[in-house]
C-alpha cells in the first residue's frame, strides 16, 4: 500500500494528543510540526495544550497553531488532587487519547496516570536511568553530565508512571560529548535529537493503540 493510501486510511483513526507544558515548548512545536507535515500526519493531532505556567511560550505556540490551550495554575487550588482533577477533566473533555509531557515540570496526578496507563509519554534530556529523578531537570542535567566527564549523553522518551523518570523506555538516542563541551553545547545537541525522537516515539505508541482497536 502506498504511503498516501496509508495516510488516508489512518484519517479514520487519528489519535488525539494532549500536551502538558511549563516552558518554551520547543518539543511541543516539533510535535505540532510532525502532525502537520511529518511522521504523525494522518496519525495524530494535538487537540489540547495544558500549561501550569501562564508565561509559558508554549501557550503562544498553541495559539499560532490554532490549538485549544488552557492554563491551570497550582496556586489556584487547595491541593494537588483538585489541581490534577481539573487537568484530567480538560483531557477528557477534549477526548485525548495520548498525553505527552513536553517540559512539564510537575509530577503528574495519580488519577491521570491510572486513567491513561501506558498512554502517557515524557521526554527527558539525558540517557535514563542516568541523570533522572526529582530535581534533575533542564540545565541541571547538562551541568551534571559535563561534571561527570561522561562521553555520551542523549535523550529518552519513556512511558510515565507514578514516579519521576522511571517508566518503560520507548526510544533513546545518544550524542557524543567532546571534552571542550559546555553544558550549553550539550543542551543544544540534545535538544536537536529530542525534536526528532519525540514524534517517533508518539508514532510507535499511536500505532500500537491502533492495532489494539
Ligand atoms: C526538554 O529538554 C525536555 O527534555 C525536558 O524539558 C525540556 C523542555 O523544553 N523534559 P521545551 O519546553 O520543549 O523547549
Explain the layout of strands and helices.
Layout (H helix, E strand, L loop, with lengths): L2 H8 L4 E7 L4 H12 L6 E8 L5 H8 L4 E3 L8 H14 L4 E4 L8 H6 L4 E5 L13 H11 L3 E8 L9 E8 L6 H29 L2
Parallel strand pairs: 1-2, 1-4, 2-3, 4-5
Antiparallel strand pairs: 5-6, 6-7
Helix pairs in contact: 2-7, 6-7
Overall description:
- This protein is an alpha/beta fold and 213 residues long.
- It has one domain (3-211): 3-Layer(aba) Sandwich (Rossmann fold), CATH 3.40.50.
- Helices cover 41% and strands 20% of the residues.
- Helix 2 crosses helix 7.
- The two termini are 20 Å apart.
- The mean pLDDT is 94.
- Residues 23-27, 102-103, 123-125, 191, 194 line the site of 5-O-phosphono-beta-D-ribofuranosylamine (GRF).
